[in-house]
Write a structure and sequence with these properties.
Rossmann fold, Immunoglobulin-like, three-stranded antiparallel beta sheet, binds S-adenosylmethionine
């Protein structure tokens, strides 16, 4: 028996139905999903002129200490001209609109560099009357400037596809402690409920302390990911799940599809799965797929991206059992790259190849909580050719199938 490297374009976990992650240009063809998404969130490059990286931890020691991470180039936020950037954005926004159901919504996340141009562009594509909100996401992180007011907010443009828009603000009540309206007169009614009153324009307004309060269009209560946040993947520009959770809850129902065409580390997909929604997450950068794949390993997803043909060395044993085979990973060597051996493995899965599709049955990945990579996985005895998929520290995915030795 020997492991032979092979290529497949589709990888299925569980029944694969919770969502799909793929490598695709946001300007590409998304026609199979047209008219299906309840919400599309997009966090494209902001026209910063900078390069962004995935800071990949390596091996057990690297995951334990956080030291010596590889800085792998993820994407360049550099465009020939503003026109070139806006042409890319236009195609992506047109794709987003086509993805939406009639009651769907789009959220386009930008900063002050491109927001004004994007607003006009989106007005043209969605129609001015379908503009819903300019959400200001205000945060404290980042440096301070003495030359101007420090730039401490992003802009999220919110458009609906039509007047039939679905929107449920009651799904995102704010915690009560933040709702105190201290400038108002505090009273208690005969049932013992505390309320506040204020007079304005000859009217008296009454607000009960235990009434739910909902966010306005300035979101200052969602913080950027801190250095040590357990959500952090090492992918520059990763957004917090709390931000996506608010968007997804308001703009979709459980079971609906949430899409993201610039998915980066997969925050939209991960949050959609946690909120019981399905997801479609795509990004141009294969490295981002490796990060999103790891965050979603326990989710019933489909991964649509070809595994690499460039060869790498794999040594693994398969030991037949009664209901399961034990598969032990012994050695791995990518063709290039300084990191070799099992330290070079970031994630691995065992499963079966059937009709050119890899069905993953068991997975292992290095994480902050589990820096050591299990080298033994159990493969249930099912129909198909046993196969091993490795995603390495360079973000490269390769697949091997088990082949009988020629007699
Ligand atoms: C700001 S990041 C998204 C971060 C993401 N929201 C997260 O939480 O990790 C922008 C992403 O857009 C991707 N990108 C840039 N140009 C693209 C294009 N034309 N099509 C698809 N993705 C693109 C980059 O690879 C990058 O992952």
């Amino acid at each position: 028996m020997r492991w032979v490297q092979t290529v497949c374009c589709r990888e299925i976990h569980g029944d694969g139905k919770s969502g799909e992650i793929l490598v695709r240009d946001a300007r590409g063809d998304f026609s199979p999903w047209h008219g299906q998404a309840a919400c599309v969130y997009m966090d494209p490059p902001f026209m910063t002129g900078e390069d962004f990286y995935l800071h990949m931890r390596v091996g057990e020691a690297g995951w334990e200490t956080g030291k010596d991470a590889l800085a792998l180039p993820a994407y360049r936020d550099k465009y020939e001209s503003r026109e070139a950037y806006l042409a890319m954005l236009r195609d992506a926004v047109e794709n987003a609109r086509a993805l939406l159901r009639e009651d769907g919504s789009m959220f386009l996340h930008l900063d002050s560099r491109a927001a004004a141009h994007a607003r006009l562009l989106c007005d043209g594509i969605f129609g001015e009357s379908n503009f819903v909100n300019e959400i200001i996401w205000a945060y404290q992180s980042g440096g301070r400037s003495m030359k101007r007011f420090s730039r401490k907010h992003d802009v999220i443009l919110f458009y609906r596809k039509s007047r039939r828009q679905y929107f449920d603000i009651t799904s995102v009540p704010l915690p009560r402690s933040e709702n105190r309206q201290n400038h108002m007169r505090k009273c208690v009614d005969e049932d013992g409920r505390t309320y506040r009153t204020i007079q304005s324009g000859g009217k008296t307004y009454t607000y009960y302390d235990d009434d739910p309060v909902y966010p306005g269009d300035v979101w200052a209560d969602v913080s950027h990911l801190q250095q040590k946040d357990p959500q952090r993947t090492g992918y520059d520009t990763q957004k917090p799940q709390a931000l996506l959770s608010r968007i997804i809850r308001c703009a979709s129902r459980p079971g609906d599809l949430a899409a993201d065409l610039f998915s980066g580390s997969g925050t939209t997909a991960v949050t959609a799965a946690l909120e019981g929604r399905r997801f479609l997450a795509s990004d141009l950068c294969p490295l981002s797929l490796a990060v999103a794949r790891k965050r979603l390993l326990d989710t019933a997803m489909t991964v649509s991206a070809p595994t690499l043909e460039t060869p790498a060395f794999l040594s693994a044993q398969i030991i037949p059992g009664i209901a399961y085979h034990d598969v032990r990973l012994l050695d791995y060597a990518p063709e290039t790259g300084a990191v070799q051996g099992l330290d070079a493995v970031d994630q691995w899965s065992v499963g079966f190849l059937r009709d050119g599709v890899f069905y993953a049955q068991a997975n292992a990945a290095r994480r902050k909580q589990t820096p050591a990579l299990p080298s033994l996985l159990q493969l249930p005895q099912l129909r198909g050719t046993p196969a091993i998929l490795i995603s390495d520290v360079y973000g490269e995915r390769r697949l091997w199938r088990l082949e009988e030795d020629e007699k």
